[in-house]
Amino acid sequence: MAQEPCGPDERTSTPHALATPPIGELYEEHLAAIYRFIFSKVGNREEAEDLTSQVFIKAVRHLDQSRHIESIQSWLFQVARTTVADHWRRFYRIRVHSLEDLLDAGWEGPREERAGPRTPHPELRVQQLLALLPGRYREVLTLRFLENCSIAETAEHMGLSEPNVKVLQFRALKKAAMLDRGG
């Protein structure tokens, strides 16, 4: 006597908890968290919105339908981290010009030095510039260039991550250069 099947084969049915929901549900469920994460990294509403939309466009294109629901959120955050990193790489990329391009654009070359040095004591000028900077800028430049600390040592001393120290150092140098030019 043959036994009648009493239901679908358990090995071929997919439990509901493992099925990937449609992208619309993923979008609605994770939009706020992804946006907050990106906004915390870029600090600008418009950029955060653009980058969040890029994350979900990538999700539509590359979502592995066999992925467990539990891993989807971590995967979306990894996509968001990569998208933010790409954004900062594009933002800080400096265009390199050839000398001919610069001359064609109207650059006149290096200027003649003034009759005398700008300040009689360079160390004094450094101290004056540091005094004009906000505290965090002054601290990062002092640690990095006067005390010769590495990025890692500076990060540990300031209680920041290494990427944050790099950004802070960039901004501090930019501000110091602006102040040195009289801005």
Residue stretches low in confidence (pLDDT < 50, at least 5 long) are 1-17
Beta-strand portion reads under 5%
- Bin the helical content: 55-70%
What structural category do the secondary elements indicate?
A: mainly alpha
Task: Characterise this structure.
It is a single chain. 64% of the residues lie in helices and 0% in strands. With 183 residues, it is an all-alpha fold. It folds into 2 domains: 16-92, Rna Polymerase Sigma Factor, Chain: A; 121-180, Orthogonal Bundle (Arc Repressor Mutant, subunit A). Helix 2 crosses helix 3 (69-92). The N and C termini lie far apart (95 Å).
Please give a quick description of this structure:
By secondary structure, the chain is mostly helical. Helices cover 64% and strands 0% of the residues.
Label this structure with key terms.
183 residues; Arc Repressor Mutant, subunit A; 64% helix; elongated; disordered N terminus
Task: Summarize the helices and strands and which ones pair or pack.
Layout: H1 23-42, H2 45-62, H3 69-92, H4 99-104, H5 122-132, H6 135-146, H7 151-158, H8 162-180
